[in-house]
Amino acid sequence: MTNNLLTCGQLERKLSQKIQAFYRQHLGHQPSKVTCQFFGSKLAIIIENSITSAEQILLDEGKNDLAKKVRSNLDDAIQPELKELIKEVAEVEVVDILSDATLDTGRTGIIVVLSQTPQVRNPESIPKAKN
Question: CA 44 to CA 112: how far, in whole Å?
Fold first, then answer.
């Protein structure tokens, strides 16, 4: 069974690729980079260039508040499917997702709280989360 497990790095890369494809498929926008890193039963996700064309148009028109509302509503709308994607890939339950975007830099940060640390081939490579 251990031989079928991914290493921590492989699991992080697989999640990054799946999340990038998820954004492309669901929002019609491909982020330039998605970085995932586990910290015990927590997962940090940084999405570079996460702002959609519609949000960028609103920002260009000076409608920052509306762009923030659009981003917040998009995040809320995709959260259930994002939870399911993470659950399928990491093979653990997702307890909570916290996310925020900085429209000025085009970055989105997501913290995922998992029910337990995912099983990987090299468990010592997952840093322990500080409580």
Answer: 6
Burial 43-72 (b: 16+ CB within 10 A, else e): bebbbeebbbeebeebbeeeeeeebeebbe
Quote the pTM value: 0.89
Helices vs strands, H then E, count in the chain: 3, 4
* Beta partners for residue 94, in sequence order: 114
Q: How far apart, in whole angstroms, are the C-alpha atoms of residue 26 and residue 35?
A: 19
Q: Which two tokens stand for residue 24?
A: 């492309």
pLDDT at residue 76 greater than cutoff 80 = yes
Q: Which among 78, 17, 7 has a CA at the least distance from the CA of 38?
A: 7
